[in-house]
Amino acid sequence: MLPDLEGAVDAAGRRIVDWRLQRDGVEQAMAVEDGGSGWWAAEWPDLRADLAIPLDRDQALLGLYRQDDDGLWLLAIASAAPNPPRGRTLIRYEAPLPVLRTPLRAGDAWTATIATSGTLDGLPWQGVDAWQVRATAGGRIELPDFSAGPTLRVRSEVEVRSVLGPTVRRTQISWMFECMGELGRATLDGSGALIERRLLRP
Q1: Strands 8-9 and 147-162
Q2: pLDDT at residue 30 above 70?
Q3: Largest CA distance in the chain
Q4: Which stretches within the chain are classed as H helix?
């Protein structure tokens, strides 16, 4: 069963997305770390990453991001540990990938297709990421600890193409609030099944 992704309109005409009681899939609090002080800084001294955010539910892979007045940019992917048992990951984007653009408004949409190269689990990697992103009005989101709105609902369709391996597709749906950033996120696999939910815990 999927969590509530669309919400319902109440008697006052307001859209409400209610996650207070749902416990579908793997639920995690969103963790954000300093992106410039990890072990990867010695490998990429010119990267200038501001944030490191887990990409998988095991928190073994981190996305390294830069944030500026124009948005949030994915620069690279690195394994959380410098020498994990399954092998080191260091993948860099040929150009910064726009995950979010700011200021963000309902109706905004963009696409990006950017080549990647490096090492995945200790093996050579070469591929392409293709993103399609659209922002719409998201209503109010109710979380176990608090609620906020009106939000923007950002849907990102992501296709990771490997030169040698299969293509992987993911859908990420996030609820963004102006003063707090990303409040909640649902990640679906290529078949539409829930992989995980992430909640902001203030």
Answers
A1: unpaired
A2: no
A3: 56
A4: none
| 103: preceding bond cis by omega (within 30 degrees) | yes
Q: What is the DSSP string of 30-66?
A: ---EETTSSGGGGT-TT----EEEE-STT--EEEEEE
- The per-residue pLDDT for range 35-48, each reduced to its tens digit, is 888 999 999 999 99
Strands 61-68 and 51-54: antiparallel
Cα Rg, the chain, nearest whole Å: 17
Residue 131 · residue 112 · CB < 8 Å: yes
Cβ atoms within 10 Å, residue 109: 11
Phi/psi for 5 (5° steps) reads -105, -20
Label residues 21-51 b or e (16+ Cβ within 10 Å = b): eeeebeeeeeeeeebeebebbebbeebebbb
Backbone angles phi, psi at 8, to 5 degrees: -130, 150
The token pair that represents 119 in the structure block = 């090492």
Nearest-angstrom CA–CA distance, 182 and 72: 12
164-191 confidence digits (pLDDT tens): 888 999 999 999 998 788 898 999 999 9
Give dist(CA 175, CA 186) in Å, integer: 9
pTM: 0.89
Amino acid at 134: R
Per the listing, tokens 């309902």 go with: 106
